[in-house]
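In the previous chapter we treated chains in isolation. Here, by contrast, the input contains two separate entities that must be folded as one system, with a combined length of 582 residues.
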Amino acid sequence: MRRWLSRLSDSALVLFVLLGLAALPFYKADALRERFVGAHAIAPGSTTAVLLVSLAIAVFSLLRRNHVWTNPAQLTWDDHHDRDRLLRRRLWTAVVARFAAVAYVFVSAGLILGWPDNLPLAGALIAASALFGYRWSNRPQSWVELGGPFLLALAGVLFAGPVVLWAVVAVLVVAAVPSGRPVRRDVLVRGWNARILRSVSAAFGDALALLPPARPIRVRPTNPLRFAVAGALARRSALPFAGLVLLAIPVLRHAFPVVGSIWWVGLGAYLSTVPFAGGLAEVVRTAGLRRWVPTSTRVLKLAAFAVLTVAAALWGATVVLLGFPFVPLAVPLVAWAVVRTVSRPDIDYTAGVSTDVGGLYLPVGLVFQVLRGPDLLLFGLLVLGYFHSS
Amino acid sequence: MSDVIVSAEGIGVLVGDERWLFRDLDLAVARGRCLALTGENGSGKSTLLRCLYGVQDPTEGTVEVAGRTPDETDAAFRRDVSVLFDDSAVFDEFTPGQHFDLLGGGQPAHDLPEVPARGLSAGQRRRLLLLGALTKPHKVLLLDEPERAVDAAGRDWLKQMVNAAKGAGSAVVLASHFPPLVDAVADEVIDL
């Protein structure tokens, strides 16, 4: 026992803490209900709505195709067996992991918010979503596939009734009929490069490396403002993610009404807007790209701020249509928090001084820089939340 | 000698505790002149260029470029000095024309296809980087092995471009492993 305990590292401690938190719904459901729902009445269908949003996120995540990769060295020297079998095995693992998470969310929501009347329908939704996600993530990427997660999220936002939800199940099953197609070598190599980037980013705690890559655009970047516009438009691949967040927050607000609207709007706008600031992040972090833009960093930040303000305002105006209040001050707050996040200096990994973060000792510089941006957002939302509620 | 725009006196760079990459080096490059740095791999050519751009401090000696101590973090210094280094990069999503829009120095004549840079070959990307360094308004031009990944025709074009930059009054310092380029453009050569 002592030998087993001596093998426990700091990270095991973090794991224990996380497992303890994850288990809370199973023995503290009443306390959690009190904390997140309070005296509000639980909207009927809340658990099903939470399930639908979870399914939308799980399918969306599968469609990122993180399982599609092969080491180029393997393609060069050891490419004589069936590639697809390995990919299918990885895809199964991805499906199981994501839908296990969905099952956990569903059970937790059931314990806290109450179980839905129609459990077979919930099962059918899970099965149809898994089938849709499995089949489409086994095919070349297409905009059409986004219909699946958006249909699920939309059904969640509308708190759709059983008839509509059975129709959603039918649509997902029918849409899953087309079979998969083999993946080409260039896609596998691209997947490998993305995987390496993800591992490096995770190892070094540098989430900014995961901002979406840019796609070609026609805008001529003749001045800093146009450069910022080009940077945002080039990352239009982040639009579906922003749309999904947009549809998720009304469900979460209904399910957990104690959390103020300003928090959902602020956090949602921040998450949705960050990817569009990838252009500024890239040019601030890469000296070789910085030399193409002979403008001061301050001007680049201001230009990005202007563009992100417009993006956050559009996002904020859209959530108004979903029943949220419009808080004008939240718009520049989110835009500036995003600029602050993406323009942080390179992460300082020197471990001169370390600090205890949930049982893990991390360099102070790393903690300080990772929090740069979210700190402004949280502080601003705290202030806005105070005035908004009083 | 008032035309001298790049100068160094007694500079040296120590690697580790006791190995000098180069030491007691003096150099002076006037407007419209070109200094070529040659030498085998690891002899310190790129390090010297980094010292001239203020990315690295020499262990000893003084350097002056465009009237000031090199400091790459200073926007005014960057406006005077154009570089092509190992870390130079292109925006994958921008076409060559969009890259030149960024520099604000007009559109140079070129035969690169107007497609996003991700669609260019390695040689074409290199040529785009060279065009960028040459097009950006500058007083001093620092080029680290500009001939790399460029085909025979491109190397001839490179000679013309560097000579054109000299003709326009630029002081050029380039590191090269390609003797025909050095012969065609250099007024002085330092073999490290």
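Chain B has a mean pLDDT of 90. The longest helix of chain B spans residues 152-167. Compare these points with the single-chain example from earlier in the chapter.
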